[in-house]
């Protein structure tokens, strides 16, 4: 470890173990005892109140008031860090190994009681995400580095399911994690505008030498959510979607990431949402998943869309069944 890391480690050890001899510090940090003396002198010179007691039970310790300084995390902070690490790692955070190393370092410089508590916090929480494709971690790291250096990347991108792969040049403005998927947000040179790209659909990525400037105060999150949510500013183009149903089903609908932003009125038996037509076109499959627990009251054209989607699905599976039977 570097000099700074060793000096910080001495502070952590003295804070968690209260009193240690120079020999104990040297053994713990695997450095020479004379190096410990030099680091102790440097810490004292910088204003750290380290007390040296001689005798059989002597050693180095910190003054009582310095023991309460926020050098170490308290139990709630430790718990929050461990839980946050679990969420990040399960979500496919591209630097999960570094995060694990940070937690290991935290435990290394904690006493047995603290380590036991941290292990209990870790064992008491499980996070379930869809399986993460490890291959995208390298892509995420490449994107992150390119974005930090403001260097454009060339990507081979598959736009949809089974479609042809297109070459794109991207100025990355930010990464967004949304509904178990990673998205790269930035300026697409091909389209000449800001776009979002699913990282798992990036088949190849190459760093270029082209530099770019990120727009000041640009928020990848704000852009991404704006592209997903209905435009509620132009009220003349909004359509009322009225749904009746069981209270629990309505609760679920009103808590949905999309419909929750468009909720206008709510009762125990009905809910009214204000949406644009573009957004309405994406809803039939969502609402059909609720089966008979809800019923669309208006608008009429949306009820026609539900019937058309259901009819197409019925015809599709009927034709599949007939095909399977003819092959038997």
Spell out the blueprint of helices and strands.
Elements: H1 3-17, E1 19-20, H2 22-29, H3 33-45, E2 50-53, E3 59-62, H4 64-67, H5 75-90, H6 96-108, H7 112-123, H8 135-149, E4 151-158, E5 165-178, E6 181-188, E7 193-198, E8 202-211, H9 220-228, E9 239-245, H10 247-254, H11 259-262, E10 263-266, E11 270-275, H12 277-280, H13 284-288, E12 294-298, H14 300-327
Antiparallel strand pairs: 1-3, 2-3, 4-5, 4-8, 5-6, 6-7, 9-11, 9-12, 10-11
Brief synopsis:
The protein has 328 residues and is α+β, with helices and mostly antiparallel strands. The protein is built from 14 helices and twelve strands. The chain folds into four domains: 3-67, Winged helix-like DNA-binding domain superfamily/Winged helix DNA-binding domain (Arc Repressor Mutant, subunit A); 75-123, no CATH class; 135-227, SH3 type barrels, CATH 2.30.30; 230-312, Alpha-Beta Plaits.
Number of domains: 4
Strand order of the largest sheet: 7-6-5-4-8
* Fraction in helix: 40-55%
What would you report as the Rg, rounded to the nearest angstrom? 29 Å
Structural class: alpha+beta
């Amino acid at each position: 470890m570097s000099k700074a890391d060793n000096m910080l480690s001495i502070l952590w050890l003295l804070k968690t173990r209260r009193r240690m001899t120079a020999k104990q510090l040297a053994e713990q940090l695997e450095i020479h005892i004379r190096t410990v003396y030099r680091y102790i002198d440097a810490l004292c010179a910088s204003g750290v109140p380290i007390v040296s007691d001689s005798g059989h039970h002597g050693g180095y310790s910190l003054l009582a008031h310095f023991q309460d300084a926020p050098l170490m995390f308290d139990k709630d902070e430790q718990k929050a860090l461990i839980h946050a690490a679990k969420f990040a790692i399960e979500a496919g955070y591209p630097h999960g190994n570094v995060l694990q190393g940070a937690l290991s370092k935290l435990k290394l410089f904690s006493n047995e009681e603290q380590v036991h508590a941290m292990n209990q916090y870790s064992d008491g929480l499980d996070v379930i995400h869809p399986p993460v494709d490890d291959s995208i971690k390298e892509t995420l790291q490449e994107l992150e580095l390119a974005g930090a250096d403001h260097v454009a990347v060339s990507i081979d991108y598959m736009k949809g399911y089974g479609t042809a792969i297109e070459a794109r040049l991207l100025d990355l403005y930010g990464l967004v994690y949304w509904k178990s998927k990673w998205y790269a947000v930035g300026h697409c040179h091909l389209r000449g505008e800001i776009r979002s790209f699913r990282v798992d659909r990036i088949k190849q990525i190459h760093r270029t030498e082209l530099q770019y400037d990120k727009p000041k105060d640009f928020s990848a999150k704000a852009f991404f959510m704006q592209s997903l949510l209905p435009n509620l500013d132009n009220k003349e183009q909004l359509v009322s979607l009225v749904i009746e149903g069981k209270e629990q089903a309505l609760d679920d609908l009103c808590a949905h990431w999309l419909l929750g932003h468009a909720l206008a009125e709510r009762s125990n038996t009905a809910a009214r949402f204000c949406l644009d037509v573009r957004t309405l076109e994406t809803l039939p499959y969502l609402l059909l998943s609720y089966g008979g627990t809800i019923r669309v009251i208006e608008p009429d054209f949306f009820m026609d869309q539900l019937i058309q989607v259901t009819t197409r699905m019925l015809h599709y599976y009927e034709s599949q069944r007939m095909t399977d039977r003819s092959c038997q």
